[in-house]
Write a structure and sequence with these properties.
The chain is mostly helical. Helices cover 54% and strands 3% of the residues. InterPro entries: Marvel, Synaptogyrin.
Length: 230
């Protein structure tokens, strides 16, 4: 595969085209996840708390502060993680070590899958608390749009983070296939040499067998004929 390196990236040292990088499905999913996390975080921070005639602010999700805190946490960490992995994707081709590439891909698989699960919990938790919220707790329907936005984009984030997990798994499988035969000896044994080596440093074998006369020959000379004496 010309022009393709291990774990789905270009060869080490190859330049990254920004336009091509921006059109990749993984980059698009990463950008959408960044936007969705920003919406979840900003919606709760800006309009997720209401003042019900006192100085104390209450969470719009059934006055449950844990719901707002959880949504802020998932949105903020997801926002920072998208920024980190976005930079990692752009610099991935410059990583020369195959082991480091493998570690990076495995971290991405674990984090993306785990964050997709956390967004699933966020969607269920916020939707459950919102369904229990009474209209009397939201004067003039204050914070309702922000609550609905946090719930909706938590659901959208499940899809994008799951898509990122699938892309990372595909990258890992591709890297595994391409590095399958990179080890010199898969069985751990020394290579066998069916023929003698012709290298300068290799020793030469000499035969020590003595010359043997061919069969059916006599080593002793034939007896000479003697003339009889009369």
């Amino acid at each position: 595969m010309d022009g393709v390196g291990s774990f789905g990236a270009g060869r080490t040292g190859s330049t990254v085209d920004p336009i091509t990088f921006a059109k990749q499905p993984q980059t698009i999913l990463r950008a959408l996840s960044w936007i969705f996390s920003l919406v979840v975080f900003a919606s709760i921070v800006n309009e997720g708390y209401v003042n019900l005639g006192s100085e104390r602010l209450h969470c719009v999700f059934n006055k449950n502060a844990d719901a707002c805190n959880y949504g802020v946490f998932v949105g903020l960490v997801g926002l920072l993680a998208c920024s980190f992995f976005f930079l990692l994707d752009y610099k991935f081709a410059s990583i020369s070590s195959v082991k480091d590439r493998k570690k990076a891909v495995m971290i991405e698989i674990g984090f993306s899958g785990f964050w997709a699960f956390l967004y699933f919990v966020s969607f269920c938790f916020l939707a459950s608390q919102w369904s229990r919220t009474e209209t009397a707790d939201l004067p003039l329907n204050q914070g309702a749009d922000a609550a609905r936005a946090a719930i909706a984009f938590s659901f959208f984030s499940i899809i994008t983070w799951a898509g990122l997990t699938v892309r990372a798994v595909q990258k890992y499988l591709l890297g595994t296939d391409m590095t399958l035969f990179t080890t010199e000896h898969m069985d751990g044994g020394a290579p066998t040499q069916p023929y003698p080596s012709n290298s300068p440093g290799a020793g030469t074998t000499e035969t020590t067998e003595k010359y043997q006369s061919p069969p059916f020959t006599e080593n002793n000379a034939a007896p000479t004929y003697q003339v009889p004496i009369y």
